[in-house]
Amino acid sequence: RKSPIEILNKLKIESPFYSYSTGLENRYCEETKGRRIISPVDNRQIGEISFLSSEGYENVINTAEHAFLVWRKIPAPGRGNIVRQLGEELRKEKEALGTLISYEMGKSLQEGYGEVQEMIDICEFATGLSRQLYGLQIQSERPAHRLFEQWHPLGIVGVISAFNFPVAVWAWNTAIALVCGNVCIWKPSEKTPFSSIVCQEIFSRVLKSNNLPEGISSLIMGDLEIGKKMAEDSRISLISATGSTAMGRDVAQRVGKRLGKSILELGGNNAIILSEHADIEKALPALVFGAIGTAGQRCTSTRRLIVHENIYNKFLRQLKNAFEQIKIGDPLNEENHMGPLIDEDAVNNYYLTIELAKKQGAKIISGGKMVLVGDNCSQCYVAPTIIEADLNLEIMKTETFAPIVYIVKYKSIEEAIKLNNNVPQGLSSALFSLNLREVEEFLSFEGSDCGIANINIGTSGAEIGGAFGGEKETGGGRESGSDAWKSYMRRQTCTVNYGTDLPLAQGIKFNL
Ligand code: NAD
């Protein structure tokens, strides 16, 4: 297999020792402070990253402001054509970029490729969307008047993204924001910078070959301090932030203080209800993939299983058996089901959660330990864990980014829905059942309170065509498909009087 350094070289990204700070020509800014990037796969150093200085930050903002003046003049279908080219370039680099994502973040190779595919898909979606940024025409109450609404770009869109989908979240935001006429500044997770550098380089190529200013898309390297700076910067019209609820709360306050716009995509705590009327054989793989896919580090990972009491014991045996067959190891080896957690902090968090669950009276059914993988010196591999929980287990309300799933019993569908909703987060939810009444109740206004509600399919993952996001502490934002584009534009309501009189609305008379 190719080493990540070879991949960077193939993409003409020369040095593993990066002083990479921005997406601009003068990217080699003076270093402020930096970070060594270690792969969780084998504990080897991929490279070094330095963070952007204040001067570099101003440079990025100024360049983006100038690029916006050029970009917004290009008709939307022309902008769509550029995003289409980005999709085509990504298709060419799918294997290399997918491999790097897998090595840098630790997700399976298939999931690394899947992430690039998601980027290609959203570019195609955005290209079509570029011809469909429709406004409404509304019937005016006044004679010889036309009332309509239209959509204009916002300006600079700041994208702050998390480590677990190091690049797809950028594409979800950027492809849509760009066809809407905005320019973008991306601050990726400081834990997965190399995957973002590759995306930036690929897009820079597209911009260069079209003689477009590279400030249309910039990359900023930094940690939460630069994220805070972006949130406070009123030159950034919209902040789209993906990450933990703690981060979202802080970003919301900073953006709110300046009355800016934000899209928040935060933590989830997703449940699957397994009814006695379910096709359990079909459900099992979805439940297991939901819990252990990406080592439980998806915002849509299945964290809670709510199982009907009549099938509980039999199902628990099947689940335990399935968990014990999970192959843990190098995610670049396609025979393995599950790779490592992102870093040792995540491993500590895994242990802490298990200890707390035990203290709160829960029972560990399987897992709960570290896994040594051959002669690999990474300490980030852990066993997928099942915890049998009491209905009131407090720790179950917290999102732990690890392959831990809680299992609880229920008696009635109403009780199951209540349990589903009884957490602060509201991202994804699912019911496995072939019973129409239960299904409709789960999907009704009295049912799941989440942004995503699935039937006979798990909580994990989503198609780009739908709007993606969740309620409550998940932040309320929507990204990707459907009409999520509207958050990236400003709506303008216009009235044109083409008559000879000037009638006021509501029949008001005003004579001078
Ligand atoms: P994190 O909150 O630690 O960091 C996410 C990003 O925010 C990083 O780029 C980080 O530098 C930045 N950041 C952190 N604090 C900030 C602050 N106060 N101001 C500005 N920027 C700040 O999250 P993580 O560990 O990288 O990712 C895991 C979390 O992301 C989980 O909670 C997961 O559920 C969530 N997530 C949500 C979605 C979604 O669509 N709802 C998608 C992916 C991940």
Which structural traits does this protein have?
binds nicotinamide-adenine-dinucleotide, 512 residues, 7-stranded mixed beta sheet
Describe the structure.
There is one protein chain. This protein is of the alpha/beta class and 512 residues long. The longest helix has 21 residues, at 109-129. Mean pLDDT is 92; it is low at 14-32. 36% of the residues lie in helices and 20% in strands. The relative contact order is 0.13. The chain has a seven-stranded mixed sheet, with helices on both faces. Strands 7-6-5-8-9 form a five-stranded parallel sheet, sandwiched between helices. Helix 3 (76-92) packs antiparallel against helix 5 (109-129). A hairpin with a 6-residue loop joins strand 3 and strand 4. It is globular and about 80 Å long. The structure holds nicotinamide-adenine-dinucleotide (NAD). Residues 160-165, 187, 189-190, 223-224, 227-228, 231, 242-244, 247, 250-251, 265-268, 299, 399, 401, 427, 470, 474 line the site of nicotinamide-adenine-dinucleotide. InterPro entries: Ald_DH/histidinol_DH (IPR016161), Ald_DH_C (IPR016163), Ald_DH_CS_GLU (IPR029510), Ald_DH_N (IPR016162), Aldehyde_DH_dom (IPR015590), ALDH7A1-like (IPR044638). Residues 35-493 form the Aldehyde dehydrogenase domain. Pfam families: Aldedh (PF00171).
